[in-house]
Design goal:
Strand content: 25-35%
Structural class: alpha+beta
CATH architecture: 2-Layer Sandwich
Helix content: 40-55%
CATH topology: Alpha-Beta Plaits
Order of helices and strands: HEHHHEEHHHEEHHEHEE
Mean pLDDT: 87
Number of strands: 8
Distance between the termini: 32 Å
CATH superfamily: Nucleotide cyclase, GGDEF domain
Number of helices: 10
CATH class: Alpha Beta
């Protein structure tokens, strides 16, 4: 229920004292979720969300990510920087998630009459990580990287792409993986003073 990495961190007390670390984040959002929910009804939509998130689990584990939060139809996946950039794990996870849904096309079509698709935003930055709470404990990440990643993901429709990546993350990557990346130019994100270069992935 907590996830292996969170459970391990609680037992070892790793984040009992908050620490600063650099992490990669992927904010993944289901497309047209409001319309889907209206068409299915709340109960059926919830059942679809359970299937949707369950079908993501293996891909996230396979590529060394952790599930940070579920926020209705959005899932936030995070990696330690070294784990996220190694062998392009974070990007390969994105493609594996897409394939996981395609593999279940028949299931979604028969149960819900629709196959869900998603868009994603990637960014990296420093966060403060630590335990919080008394009655209900959790390990949380705080930092501006969250807001920036959410804004990047929110521009997918503007650029008509399924994935957007910050230039900061691209700069951390090493060459060698068979992934084609294209610059979409710089954009001034809402609430940000500095321009940020955005990229998308053409193929894996």
């Amino acid at each position: 229920m907590l996830g292996l990495s969170v459970l391990y961190s609680f037992f070892t007390g790793r984040y009992h004292i908050p620490i600063e670390e650099e992490r990669v984040f992927m904010f993944l959002d289901m497309k047209s979720s409001t319309t889907i929910a209206e068409n299915l009804g709340h109960v059926k939509y919830f059942e679809m969300l359970k299937d949707y998130y369950a079908d993501f689990s293996n891909s996230i584990i396979d590529y060394e990510g952790i599930i940070y939060q579920y926020v209705e139809d959005e899932i936030i996946v995070s990696w330690k920087l070294i784990n996220g950039i190694e062998n392009y794990n974070c990007f390969k996870c994105f493609f594996a998630l897409k394939q996981a849904l395609l593999n279940q096309t028949e299931k979604y079509s028969s149960r819900y009459g629709i196959v869900p698709v998603f868009k994603a935003g990637f960014h990296t930055g420093k966060v403060t990580t630590g335990e919080i709470g008394v009655i209900k404990k959790d390990i949380i990440f705080t930092g501006d990287v969250h807001n920036t990643t959410a804004r990047i993901q929110g521009l997918c429709n503007t650029y008509n792409v399924d994935v957007l990546i910050s230039g900061q993350l691209i700069c951390k990557m090493t060459s060698g993986a068979d992934i084609q990346i294209k610059s979409l130019g710089k954009n001034e994100l809402r609430g940000k003073k500095e321009m940020i270069e955005l990229f998308t992935i053409l193929s894996n």
